[in-house]
Amino acid sequence: MAFNGTWKIERNENYEKFMEVMGVNMVKRKLGAHDNLKITIQQDGNKFTVKESSNFRTIDIEFTLGANFEYSLADGTELTGSWNMEGNKLVGTFTRKDNGKVLTAYREIIGEELVQTYVYEGVEAKRIFRRG
């Protein structure tokens, strides 16, 4: 499974602006841009286990493709939604519990990198990871 492995953040594109539109305050945006995020992904068929480890927290997330689950962002924003596979890309559609607005997330392998793309209120950001 292409996503399997440990991935370390290498760079961000437009991430601070994305966090601003999400309502994250300036101090948390500055810290979030340098969170040293490491993601470990293990796929077993339609089931995924993802461990996210950063300067702020370490959490384990388990989900099955197509099944709704709840998730909290590092800033405490609560979401509900699901991941689905579209071709070789994971596509996540999540709804914020506080305002009902949709956050879309994509995970795909491009070359040697894991690229996570987020879209919220018309603002797109990318976080690019390399195997660690």
Automatic annotation (TrEMBL):
Molecular function (Gene Ontology), one example: lipid binding
Family indicated by similarity: Belongs to the calycin superfamily. Fatty-acid binding protein (FABP) family.
Cellular location(s): Cytoplasm
Entry protein name: Fatty acid-binding protein, intestinal
Organism ancestry: Eukaryota, Metazoa, Chordata, Craniata, Vertebrata
GO cellular component, one term: cytoplasm
Subunit structure: Monomer.
Gene3D superfamilies documented for this protein: 2.40.128.20
All copies of domain Cytosolic fatty-acid binding proteins, residue ranges: 5-22
One Pfam family recorded for the sequence: Lipocalin
Domain of life where this protein originates: Eukaryota
Keywords, comma-separated and alphabetical: Acetylation, Cytoplasm, Lipid-binding, Transport
Cross-referenced PROSITE patterns: FABP
